[in-house]
Amino acid sequence: MSLLVVGTVAFDAIETPFGKTDKIVGGAATYISLSASYHTKNIHLVSVVGGDFPKEKISSLNNRGISTKGLEIKENEKSFFWSGKYHNDMNTRDTIDTQLNVLLDFNPQVPEDQTSPDFLMLGNLDPDLQAKVLDQMKARPKLIAMDTMNFWMDLKLNKLKENIARIDVLTINDEEARQLSEEYSLVKAAKKILGWGPKYLIIKKGEHGALLFNKENKVFFAPALPLEEVFDPTGAGDSFAGGFMGYIAATNDVSFDNLKRSIIVGSAMASFTVEKFGTERLEEITSEDVQKRMQSFMDLVQVDINLIDA
Ligand code: AMP
């Protein structure tokens, strides 16, 4: 099955309690497609970078089987840049700087042979650009997931809400769910957001796992793997989304039960990303590492209980 991935391909500068990086490669679509590539083939990326973006990083995406035909390179412009600083709890962060650069006049062009993908993942990006991609779909994908963040809620809330009404799965973190819905309770937030149109809402809670809600008030919870060391949470949400959509594309199954499995796969992929800065860990792991991590997850969540009638 084919998976079309849209989002930023970027430079990030990150500060955590464990260290600081200069400009390193990041971006929502980078993490999503790398993470998905451990589960499915036929991944196509649509994004934009400037002439400053390292060509070898594009090659390493290609080496993982990710097609970059839809990655526009604007030689005379600069790539999107984001910098963030994590608080001591590593679950919350402040954006220090966002430089849109190439995104400012980007007009996404989905390659003609990718306008009917089986699955679509709209990663974090300007909602106007996410909408332009949706407009280019010739047939409705079997599942459309979309991620966003507070930056776009502050800047383009109306467009974002229009997009939410056009997709199937929205993935946001707990803080963003509260901001978007103006509800403190995540259950109330989920009800309100699902009332706007999507079939499912995933609320990511960092080291506290992720919740999947559907319109019939069903809820599923997947924990995050307890890790000895977390170096850099950047890209965890995107790696989660990549694992989630990669597994759905591989299994071609959009039932609630399969979405539950896909959330576990997403959580396993996110657990790799946070172990090193940037995309380093996602680029070095093997399929065997992924299999072992998935097993750890299954062991983490499996329990048999004999019900005792006292
Ligand atoms: P995550 O930690 O999964 O929420 O995503 C981090 C990635 O999002 C970084 O690699 C950034 O380049 C990218 N990013 C940060 N701010 C934005 C934004 N406003 N729009 C799109 N992507 C962003």
Please provide a written account of the structure.
This protein has eleven helices and 14 strands. By secondary structure, it is an alpha/beta fold. 45% of the residues are buried. 36% of the residues lie in helices and 24% in strands. It has a nine-stranded mixed β-sheet with strand order 6-5-1-9-10-11-12-13-14, sandwiched between helices. The protein has a single domain (3-301), classed as Ribokinase (UDP-N-acetylmuramoyl-L-alanine:D-glutamate ligase, 3-Layer(aba) Sandwich). It binds adenosine monophosphate. Adenosine monophosphate binds at residues 8, 10, 12, 26-28, 82, 98, 124-125, 149, 151, 234-238.
Indicate the topology:
Blueprint lengths: L2 E4 L3 E7 L2 E2 L3 E3 L1 H9 L6 E8 L4 H9 L2 E9 L5 E7 L6 E7 L19 E4 L4 H9 L7 E5 L2 H6 L1 H8 L4 E5 H8 L4 H9 L5 E5 L5 E5 L4 E4 L13 H16 L4 H18 L6 H5 L2 H15 L9
Parallel strand pairs: 1-5, 1-9, 2-7, 5-6, 9-10, 10-11, 11-12
Antiparallel strand pairs: 2-3, 2-4, 7-8, 12-13, 13-14
Placed side by side, the strands forming the largest sheet appear as 6-5-1-9-10-11-12-13-14
CATH superfamily: Ribokinase
What is the CATH topology? UDP-N-acetylmuramoyl-L-alanine:D-glutamate ligase
Low-pLDDT ranges: none
The average pLDDT is 96
Structurally, the number of domains stands at 1
Radius of gyration: 18 Å
Estimate the helix proportion, in percent: 25-40%
The largest sheet is: 9 strands, mixed
Span of the ends, CA to CA: 51 Å
CATH architecture designation: 3-Layer(aba) Sandwich
Helix count?
A: 11
Overall morphology: globular
Broad CATH class: Alpha Beta
Task: Give the cofactors and ligands.
Answer: adenosine monophosphate
Report the β-strand fraction as a percent range.
15-25%
**Helix and strand element order:** EEEEHEHEEEEHEHHEHHEEEHHHH
Structural class, by secondary structure, is: alpha/beta
Write down the oligomeric state: single chain
The total count of strands amounts to 14
